[in-house]
Design a protein that fits this description.
nine-stranded mixed beta sheet; globular; about 350 residues; alpha/beta; three-stranded antiparallel beta sheet; 13 helices; binds iron/sulfur cluster; 2 domains; 15 strands
Length: about 350
């Protein structure tokens, strides 16, 4: 009997947006989508992976974008149907979709929930309408609040994304944003520092960004003000509300990326493959390369990375022992300290052999 492959988390990319935001360098296009073609393509990719992996168990499903909330219910429902047909989808697994305010009505959200959605990740970015305009967002703060309130009233888990460190931002602005998040009772949020990518409208604007030390003050103020605990460099949650999909991926679990711009890490017959789309890329990885990735993602999290033999083999233990202010060992896991998290990129260069 052929050996069953390991469980694989599933990420589905929806690469369409109503318009492009001024800071965005993600793979997404502001076009009128041909949803029938998109649905056919995604279903074909799902069939492709099911043929390769067999009916493996799926611990989480994540629809990311782009703007998944633009999807018609029919598309969402056809994709969920084929996933259930070709894989083992245990009852109650986490099924997330990202949503932008103004692109999903209460009726459509109810239809998504009836089809299995149980977690909504809302792109809020700011509770200040002037800042939303500056960022090139199409919605108002009020629309974002209403979407979050409605989703929470339906009993599903809700996350919200925010951006801080805009030109002219002060630590006080970030503190206010955190107090607003606390007041709304949101159980999960992601707080991203604004970074300027060259191929974006912001990249051509010569913006006066806050200094590195001001950004670091804001980062520390967030952790000190939010009611939620930090469980990854940019992610905060109540204990029961952590994003299981991302936690699995950061912990080194296999995942399939479905959709042209989606990348995955597939585990087949004890070999890891770097993957993109269905057949666009499917390249075997060395054990050392995969172990280094596990350290890079694991060290971003409060739980750290599990010290499996492959991780052990690429860790510079002498450096780790000389730098207890940066990394600590807790049982069978290696974790970054608060200081280590602030200089993560530098630390990883030293830690990985
Ligand atoms: S909605 Fe998200 S993916 Fe789309 S352009 Fe804005 S930031 Fe980029």
């Amino acid at each position: 009997m052929p050996r069953m492959s390991a469980p694989h988390n599933i990420y589905i990319h929806v690469p369409f947006c109503a318009s492009k935001c001024n800071y965005c360098a993600f793979y997404s296009a502001a076009v009128r989508p041909d949803w029938e073609k998109y649905t056919r393509d995604i279903c074909a990719e799902i069939n492709h992976w099911a043929d390769i992996l067999g009916p493996v168990s799926v611990p989480t499903i994540f629809f990311g974008g782009g703007t998944p909330s633009l999807m018609p219910t029919e598309t969402f429902s056809k994709i969920m149907d084929i996933l259930a047909e070709r894989f083992h989808i245990p009852a109650g697994i986490e099924i997330t979709a990202e949503a932008n305010p103004g692109t999903i009505t209460p009726e459509k959200l109810n239809e998504f929930i009836a089809t299995g959605l149980n977690r909504l990740s809302v792109g809020v970015q700011s509770f200040d309408d002037e800042k939303l305009k500056f960022l090139g967002r199409r919605h108002t703060a009020d629309q974002a609040r209403r979407l979050i309130d409605y989703a929470m009233s339906r009993g599903i888990r809700v996350s919200a994304d925010f951006i801080y460190g805009l030109p002219g931002d002060r630590t006080d602005d970030v503190l206010q944003m955190c107090r607003d998040i606390n007041d709304m009772g949101i159980g999960h949020c992601s707080m991203y520092e604004l970074t300027i990518e060259p191929a974006t409208p912001f990249g051509k604007m010569n913006l006066a960004m806050p200094t590195e030390s001001k950004m670091a003050d804001m980062y520390c103020a967030i952790a000190g003000t939010l009611r939620l605990g930090r469980y990854e460099v940019s992610n905060y949650a109540d204990a029961a509300q952590e994003c299981r999909h991302n936690a699995n991926v950061w912990d080194g679990a296999p995942y399939i990326g479905i959709g042209r711009g989606a990348a995955g890490r597939v585990l087949l017959h004890d070999t890891w493959y770097e993957q993109m789309g269905a057949g666009v890329m499917f390249t075997p990885m060395t054990a050392a390369a995969r172990a280094a990735e596990k350290i890079i993602t694991g060290m971003r999290t409060r739980r750290g990375v599990k010290i499996t033999p492959d991780v052990d083999a690429v860790t510079d233990w002498q450096w780790a022992e000389r730098n207890p202010q940066m990394v600590r060992r807790h049982g069978d896991r290696l974790c970054a300290t608060e200081t280590g998290l602030l200089t993560l990129d530098h630390m990883l260069v030293e830690l990985i052999r």
